[in-house]
Write a structure and sequence with these properties.
about 120 residues; mainly beta; Thrombin, subunit H; five-stranded antiparallel beta sheet
Length: about 120
């Protein structure tokens, strides 16, 4: 399990001990959503459209969920939800969804055309 401390840090809980806070990345937005489908497996999402993945006790470097985010603000990611370590969906503020399939994020797909 992991949780945001309101900026670029996360704390983790392994079932008996809390660890952290630990800097995930600096100056790449604030963590806005976190999903942990299993112990030791999490995805953290920043408001600037970047994601980091917890695997084997280590957070990955941040990667862009959407390589070309549009207005009103780059990324404007809202939430991420994972059903397993190999499947997550993130939604943004423009009515788009991006899926993580264990290795990379798909291109944005419009799921709410009226949202724009």
């Amino acid at each position: 399990m992991a949780t945001s401390t309101g900026s670029d840090n996360a704390v983790t809980f392994d079932g008996s001990t809390w660890r952290g806070p630990r800097l995930l990345e600096q100056y790449v937005g604030e963590l806005v959503s976190l999903s942990c489908p299993a112990a030791g497996s999490c995805v953290a999402l920043t408001d600037l459209g970047m994601a980091t993945i917890l695997r084997d006790g280590r957070w990955s470097s941040l990667t862009a969920v959407d390589e070309q985010p549009g207005p009103p603000y780059p990324g404007m990611m809202a939430s991420v939800s994972c059903t397993s370590a190999r499947f997550c969906v993130a939604v943004d503020a423009e009515g788009n969804a991006e899926a993580y399939e264990g290795r990379s994020w798909t291109r944005p797909s419009t799921i709410d055309g009226d949202y724009r």
